[in-house]
Amino acid sequence: MKRIALILAPLALALTGTTGALANEGQARSDQGEARKEMRAGNVLSLREIERRVLPQMRGSEYLGPSYDSTALAYRLKFIKDGRVTFVDVDARTGRIINRSR
């Protein structure tokens, strides 16, 4: 009985992790759709416009990509420089940087 539990425990953990990853992917797709909808309605700036404003301020950093938070109406741009990751949060309505964090 203990052997079965030892075999099944890692499997259960693996399945739990996979389910969480799929849920996060679904949320990301939902947020992307929301970003498009808000942009078409004229409520937020396009990602290209946000990037056009922020990327020049991050010279020397490699741009890793964006994410969008539909609740906060904010983009989070991810950069790396010298092995350190920096997140730049940008108000999607105004294009103003609201936070930088490492």
The spatial strand order of the largest sheet comes to: 1-2-3-4
Number of helices: 2
Mean of pLDDT: 80
Strand content: 25-35%
Q: Which terms would index this structure?
A:
102 residues; 2 helices; 46% helix
Written overview of the protein:
- Helices cover 46% and strands 28% of the residues.
- Mean pLDDT is 80; it is low at 4-23.
- With 102 residues, it is an alpha+beta fold.
- It has a four-stranded antiparallel beta sheet with strand order 1-2-3-4.
- The protein has helices at residues 2-40, 47-54, and strands spanning 62-69, 74-81, 84-91, 97-101.
- It has a single domain, classed as Nuclear Transport Factor 2, Chain: A (Roll), CATH 3.10.450.
- The protein is built from two helices and four strands.
Short description:
By secondary structure, the protein is α+β, with helices and mostly antiparallel strands.
Topology:
Elements lengths: L1 H39 L6 H8 L7 E8 L4 E8 L2 E8 L5 E5 L1
Antiparallel strand pairs: 1-2, 2-3, 3-4
